[in-house]
Amino acid sequence: MLKNKYLDPESNPLTWRMRLDKRPVWLHEYQSKNGYFALRKAITCLSKLDIVELINKSRLRGRGGGGFLTGLKWSMMIKHQSILKVNYLICNADEMEPGTYKDRLLMERLPHLLLEGILIAGYALSVSVAYIFLRYEYMIAAKYLNFAISELRSAGLLGKNILNTEFSLDIFLHTGAGRYICGEETALINALEGKRAVPRSKPPFPAQSGLWGKPTCINNVETLCNIPGIIEYGVSWYKNLSNKYSNDSGTKLMGFSGRVKNPGVWELPFGITAREILEDYARGMCDGLYLKAWQPGGASTDFLIPNHLDTPMDFHSISIIGSRFGTGMAIAIDNTVNMISLMRNLEEFFARESCGWCTPCREGLPWIVKLLISLEKNNGDPGDIEILEHLCNLLGPGKTFCAHAPGAIEPLQSALKYFRSEFEAGIHLNNLNVSNKISTIQII
After folding, report:
1. How far is CA 321 from the centre of its chain?
2. Diameter of the chain by CA atoms?
3. C-alpha R_g of the chain
4. Dist. CA 210–CA 214, nearest whole Å
5. For residue 164, with 0-12 CB atoms within 10 Å meaning exposed, 13-18 middle and 19 or more buried, which class applies?
6. I need a surface site. Which of 22, 226, 228, 292 has the fewest CB within 10 A?
7. What CATH number labels 339-443?
8. Which pLDDT tens digit goes with each residue over 170-191?
9. Tens digits of residue pLDDT in 17-62
10. How many whole angstroms separate alpha carbon 19 and alpha carbon 40?
11. Beta bridge partners of 257
């Protein structure tokens, strides 16, 4: 994971404390590396509004994929705080996006960095109870987080009157049951309440009415891990971490998976190009292979092609070329991969993970899978590609209850755009005319 043997705390705030032997950094070692200094500074030197204002000015964006401004989310939380002062903080650690494993790295190697971020956020938002909603399969992370939480309690840094102040906070770890939809914040809240994990209608937003009807802030693991550095070093430092040509602030855990020579995740400045990550960090494609396509931020982002590799890796730049930055964990597709087979595999996953709450997603994704299976077997009908394109429109943004289906069709619509000839090759020209099938879908 680490490219350089020695990392600078002021240029690699997320990873500099990590051990080279890959063992977790426990409380004593974390404190010896300036751990919980930012917490002490926040509680003893700054007001709650000061902290929220610092996060606002830092332009920290959510690291879970959406890129929503953290300071704005915190400000909404303060605006709707309960009269009874019962507020909740949830750390979204349900990292189930295919090709994404950055939060796992932080939780398994630096559990106390996450806990410090939660404590500072809890103090700023007047929260007394925080939950970490963890992906079920992350069993090692669960073990390490539970141990780190017990260390904090024993040290008096968790529970009542933290650091001899009036601030009290407890943190509980909750493992999910293994559903992709729990990454959607309102479905996560329903799951945490013991209900079926389906998204809620918004408004009201969680900041107004979230967990058990109380104001609730939900932040991603990596987002919260950025908080201590901002408190310790300040806004100007944080903004200067990124490339001067980037509109985004700070560093980001980015990576490449697929058939590259050195797949992994690295802490890098916003604005670094995808080519630099692929060639300098992932060391290029495996021998005998070349890059055919890539996804910049997980399996639910639009495919890009090699011509796009010189694009800066940040939210704005990636959106301009027709995709999403997402989680920043890129996936390399090599020249041996059949795009129909790849899309069939992805859409089977998204269809299986649909909560089934709304008709377009529940019915549309299995239909897409059925069409792709036919095309994969070179038994597609004339008109199948047009039906796929129409389904991409029917399942697009604003036409389903949540963002699951729009995310599922992003790779499909871009695969049809860049690799249409492969889909056309899957059509069996001797099949019967399907004009009736096309006219039927137009009526829907």
Report:
1. 20
2. 79
3. 23
4. 5
5. exposed
6. 22
7. 1.20.1440.230
8. 999 999 988 999 999 999 999 9
9. 999 999 999 999 999 999 999 999 999 999 999 999 999 999 999 9
10. 24
11. 331
């605006």: which residue's tokens?
A: 79
Q: Which two tokens stand for residue 393?
A: 């429109």
At residue 46, φ and ψ (nearest 5 deg) are -120, 145
At position 101, the amino acid (one-letter code) is Y
Question: For the whole prediction, is pTM greater than 0.90?
Answer: yes
Fold of the 251-334 domain: Ubiquitin-like (UB roll) (3.10.20)
Q: Which amino acid is at 123?
A: Y
Each domain of the chain, given as residue ranges in start order, spans: 27-240, 251-334, 339-443
Distance, in Å, from the CA atom of 407 to the CA atom of 257, rounded to the nearest integer, reads 19
Model confidence pLDDT, tens digit, residues 93-104? 999 999 999 999
**HEC string for the chain:** CCCCCCCCCCCCCCCCCCCCCCCCCCHHHHHHCCCCHHHHHHHHHCCHHHHHHHHHHHCCECCCCCCCEHHHHHHHHHHCCCCCCCCEEEEEECCCCCCCCHHHHHHHHCHHHHHHHHHHHHHHCCCCEEEEEECCCCHHHHHHHHHHHHHHHHCCCCECCHHHCCCCEEEEEEECCCCHHHHCHHHHHHHHCCCCCCCCCCCCCCCCCCHHHCCEEEEEHHHHHHHHHHHHHCHHHHHHCCCCCCCCCCEEEEEEEECECCCEEEEEECCCEHHHHHHHHCCCECCCCCEEEEECCCCCCCCECHHHCCCECCHHHHHHCCCCCCCCEEEEEECCCCHHHHHHHHHHHHHHHCCCCCHHHHHHHHHHHHHHHHHHCCCECCCHHHHHHHHHHHCCCCCCCCCHHHHHHHHHHHHHHHCHHHHHCCECCCCCCCHHHHHHHHHC
CATH class of 27-240: alpha beta
And the tokens for 74? 């915190």
The Cβ of residue 72 has, within 10 Å, a number of other Cβ atoms equal to: 15
Residue type at 88 in one-letter notation? Y
